[in-house]
Amino acid sequence: MRRRHDAPWLDDAAGRLIRPYTVSGGRTRPTAALDLLSQVIATGSAPQPHLGPEHSMALGLCAGPTSVAEVAAHLRLPAVVTKVLLSDLVDCGALAARAPRSHDGPTDRSLLEAVLDGLRRRL
After folding, report:
1. Strand pairing partners for 80?
2. For the segment 48-72, what is each residue's pLDDT rounded down to a tens digit?
């Protein structure tokens, strides 16, 4: 079953119509420092008119604080492509980005439990 936001990239009969790196213009390096846990949120400023529909879809997902990983999952795009799209939006002032909160360490039990709970809700 195809979701509405998949429309530009997916066709029920043909599958993926556009290669993921096409939406980022072939770019693989974001200009903003983003990682998968970075939080992005819309600022209310309008994006630049030259940005494509993929940027609009990404911006629509960021009404509240949203992680880069969540945006990538919703858009069904590789994380690096999503980072490029989001960094374009940060550069034009349509999004604000915040580094993830620092935890006690990479194996912080509460963080791992939260990730596991989120995965269970999705599956």
Report:
1. none
2. 777 888 888 999 999 999 999 999 9
Q: Distance (Å, rounded) from C-alpha 39 to C-alpha 65?
A: 6
Side-chain half-sphere CA neighbours of 51 within 13 A: 20
pLDDT tens per residue across span 88-116: 999 999 999 988 766 555 666 777 778 88
Q: Which H or E element spans position 40?
A: strand 39-42
> Strand, helix or coil at 11?
strand
Using DSSP's 3-state secondary structure scheme, residue 100 falls into: coil
How buried is residue 26: exposed, middle or buried, by Cβ count under 10 Å (0-12/13-18/19+)? exposed
For tokens 């949203």, the residue is 66
> CA–CA separation, 72 vs 58, rounded Å?
9
Domain assignments of the chain as residue spans, ordered by start? 4-122
Instruction: Give me the mean pLDDT over the 59-87 stretch.
Output: 90
